[in-house]
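re: the backbone from monday

yeah here it is again, tokenized this time
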């Protein structure tokens, strides 16, 4: 398998994630789309690491996954707090939090 297949799959996954972020209104679906975009970027790093026989890219993927896990934990905690006060996690209603 050539690297082109991995890059094409990564572009498709990233595009699906970008469409999910731009079109959807549910905050959980937006976070899932962001994670899809992170995983698409990770796929590119791993593909290039395998192609060029580099360990640095795989180490970078580990750090991206760690940051993404922390982002999910903080994001879900914020969504739970917002749901408790607003009884909805619709993104349009969250604009009322501007103060």
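seq for it, each position gets an aa:
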């Amino acid at each position: 398998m050539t690297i082109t297949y991995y890059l094409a799959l990564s572009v498709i996954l990233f595009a699906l994630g970008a469409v999910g972020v731009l079109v959807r209104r549910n905050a959980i679906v937006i976070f899932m789309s962001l994670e899809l975009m992170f995983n698409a970027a990770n796929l590119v790093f791993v593909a290039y690491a395998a192609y060029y026989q580099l360990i640095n890219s795989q180490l970078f993927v580990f750090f991206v996954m760690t940051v993404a896990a922390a982002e999910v934990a903080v994001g879900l905690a914020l969504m739970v707090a917002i749901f408790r006060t607003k009884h909805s996690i619709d993104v349009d209603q969250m604009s009322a939090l501007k103060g």
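The domain at 3-88 is CATH 1.10.287.3510 (Helix Hairpins). Helices lie at 3-23, 27-52, 56-86.
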